[in-house]
Amino acid sequence: MTTSYPLSYGQQALWLLYQLDPKSVAYNIFITAKINSPLNTSIFTRVWEKIVEHHPILRTTYTVQDSKPVQQINKKLKFTVQVIDASSWSEAYLTEKIYSETERPFILEKDSVLRVYLLTCSEKEHILLLTMHHIAGDMWSFDLLLSEFQALYTAEIEPATQEQVKNIEDSFTQNKSYLDFVRWQSDMLSDARGEKSWQYWKKQLAGELPILNFLTDKPRPPLQTFQGESYFLKLDAQLIPKLNNLAQSFGKSLYQILLTAFYIQLYRYTNQEEILMGSPMRGRRVGDLKKIIGYFVNLVPLRITVDATATFTEFLTQVSKIVKEAQKHQNYPFSLLAEQLQPQRDPSRPPLSQVSFVWQQHQWCQSTENSLHTPAKVLQMEPYLLGHQRGADWDLGLMVMEAQGVLKLCWQYNTDLFEAATIERMAGHFVTLLENIVADPQQQIWQLPLFTEIEQ
Predict the structure, then answer these.
(1) Which residue has the higher pLDDT, 351 or 170?
(2) Name one GO cellular component term (predicted).
(3) Cβ contacts of residue 447 below 8 Å, gap of 6+?
(4) Which of 39, 157, 432, 456 has minimal Cβ neighbours within 10 Å of its Cβ?
């Protein structure tokens, strides 16, 4: 008999959305990586089967019992690795096929929540595609899965003892599972920690919440839609070290620098002095849960008041302070917060905030202490950045993907609101803004140039 367990608050919210539209792919997430080595496909498949066996959340299905959603861990669940010959495909067609695979709905009541594809372009060139329903994982989970794959595949090719392999596996989970987080979250919300965070958020989000009055290209539908597209822009290699130097000189992170710039851009578009933006945080502040696969990420609403006469430097200090405070309370579930603060929300808009800023750092491609051997000798892998989600949770979202010193911007937008050309212009404005910020961070917000040379 299969045992049933409760869902986390984040999972409950996703289950509700799934019930409303089971065919929606808005919460399908994915990651792609390039493998520049010959592969033994039998070992490749065996490693992924072992990984699925290792993580209970990857063998979990979802259903309703006594009118409540529950998750059930299966001892075995049908799981297949798809190996596809892509040797005759152009890069454009390869991308198209990848996106089409990520847009296949999951049937949460019976499907495996993880799909693994190996698209073979040549003997020494492959694209690894992982697609998952968000209810079972997040982008940090992908990072962990890719790290574990590299370690286990290398151990299979350059044989290790069973004890060494088990040590690798245990180093990733530390004998914990996502159910430990569900229990921890329930305990946290019922004691002083949860009350302290609720009081913080209630104060931060008191009064009437600001709605960002963006000028959209199309009339807003009466019900929120999740139809999305993405526009990608790789930051110039000469701009990135300048941004790094600026961050180091102020003792701030690149995340804080670009987040502050995004606030300025939104202010310049809307002239609104008060802006509420959502920014997902890892939600893994508990030490022994950091290496667990599961849906931990939690959207944090960051409310900022903009003074146009402040310099970028002054505004950066203000934004950084808000971020640091919010990080202390990032474990309070966003779905619960939205329910408590907006019980009668506008159905045409996302809850609390219409815009998001996401920082996605790819750490799997860095060296790891979990490998028994140097992975590059056996398995040369590199990021293959195509985004992570095709649907649009918000009206507009800016994701920054950081991998091996490269920063790639992904503008995710709702196609029922915006035209592609509008988003492309926004991306150009953001780069112009960054260039002028690094040139003179003491400029006042209202003075910072926004338009590209062509527009001027």
Answers:
(1) 351
(2) cytosol
(3) none
(4) 456
- Domain co-membership, 25 together with 98: yes
- The length of the chain is 456
How many CB atoms neighbour CB 143 within 10 A? 19
Q: Which residue has the tokens 């893994």?
A: 284
Closest CA to 141 of 177, 175, 168, 167: 177
**pLDDT over 50 (residue 369):** no
Reported as a single tens digit per residue, the pLDDT across 160-176 is 666 666 666 666 655 68
Pairwise CA distance, residues 98 & 126, whole Å: 13
pLDDT tens, 56-96? 999 999 999 999 999 999 998 999 999 999 999 999 999 99
Instruction: For residue 251, give the amino acid letter.
Output: G
Q: What is the DSSP letter of 135?
A: G
CA torsion 61-65-67-68 (nearest 10°) is -50
Is the C-alpha dihedral spanning 255, 257, 258, 260 positive or negative? Answer: positive
3-state class (DSSP) for residue 5: strand
What is the rounded (10 degree) CA torsion for 167, 170, 174, 180? -170
Q: Is residue 372 part of a domain?
A: no
Shared-domain flag, residues 160 and 257: no
Task: Judge if 310 and 225 occupy the same domain.
Answer: yes
The position carrying tokens 């009081």 is: 199
| Matching residue, tokens 């608050």 | 9
Q: Which amino acid is at 445?
A: I
Domain containing residue 337: 192-364+392-447
Q: Which of 157, 182, 207 is the last residue of a domain?
A: 182
Residue 363, token pair as written in the block: 């750490």
What pLDDT digit, counting tens, does each position of 173-212 carry?
Answer: 556 889 999 999 999 999 999 999 999 999 999 999 999 9
Structure tokens of 129? 């595609």
List, in sequence order, every beta strand (DSSP E) within 350-395.
Answer: 355-361, 381-383
Buried/exposed code over 415-446 (b: 16+ C-beta within 10 A; e: otherwise): bbbbeeebbeebbbbbbbbbbbbbeebeeebe
